From TrEMBL:
Residues 111-121 are annotated as: LID. It catalyses: ATP + H2O = ADP + phosphate + H(+); AMP + ATP = 2 ADP. It comes from Sinocyclocheilus anshuiensis. The gene is LOC107673357. ATP binds at G16, G18, K19, T20, T21, R112. This is Adenylate kinase isoenzyme 6. Belongs to the adenylate kinase family. AK6 subfamily. One of its GO terms (biological process) is rRNA processing.
């Protein structure tokens, strides 16, 4: 029996846009392996310090890449992280940047306990399309797609679209 080659998918966007909700559900529907980079960093202690201003650990990007390298080569992985330009371009077959309107994002982040500069900077990041621009610079334009992530209907539509894309990718590449 031959092992099917499966795509690698990057879900990225400002914190609070719905990457984790989408990623976990996508993994259930496709059988792809879901990796939340924040959780992975926590489990494997992939940090290089602590940011006092934002009150959070500083990710050691090189160690994250080393930790994921073998898994990514095998294919079939969904990566969820708010940054994207440090991952090797060769890893991903498609990149989805989730976008949320500012009121939704503000409320989601506030309910997570974000305040002050951290809250403002993340909302500004979304306003200025920072993550989308980062993705466009780091990956080929044709693999980077923006998806709205405001409502449960958006979530369902995004899931259906990505599942369909994934099935087509597997037909085309096996």
């Amino acid at each position: 029996m031959r092992i099917m080659k499966r795509p690698n998918i990057l879900l990225t966007g400002t914190p609070g846009v719905g990457k984790t909700t989408l990623g976990k559900e996508l993994a259930q529907r496709t059988g792809l392996n879901y990796v939340n980079v924040g959780d992975l960093a926590q489990e494997c202690q992939l940090f290089e310090g602590f940011d006092e201003e934002y009150q959070c650990p500083i990710l050691d990007e090189d160690r994250v890449v080393d930790e994921l390298e073998d898994r990514m080569g095998d294919g079939g992985v969904i990566i969820d992280y708010h940054g994207c330009d440090f991952f090797p371009e060769r890893w991903f077959d498609i990149v989805f940047v989730l976008r949320t309107d500012n009121t939704n994002l503000y409320n989601r982040l506030e309910s997570r306990g974000y305040t002050g500069k951290k809250l403002q900077d993340n909302v500004q990041c979304e306003i200025f399309q920072t993550i989308y621009e980062e993705a466009m610079e780091a990956y080929k334009d044709e693999i980077v797609h923006q998806l709205p992530s405001n409502t449960p209907e958006d979530l369902e539509r995004n899931l259906e679209q990505i599942v369909q894309w994934s099935e087509q990718w597997m037909k085309d590449n096996n």
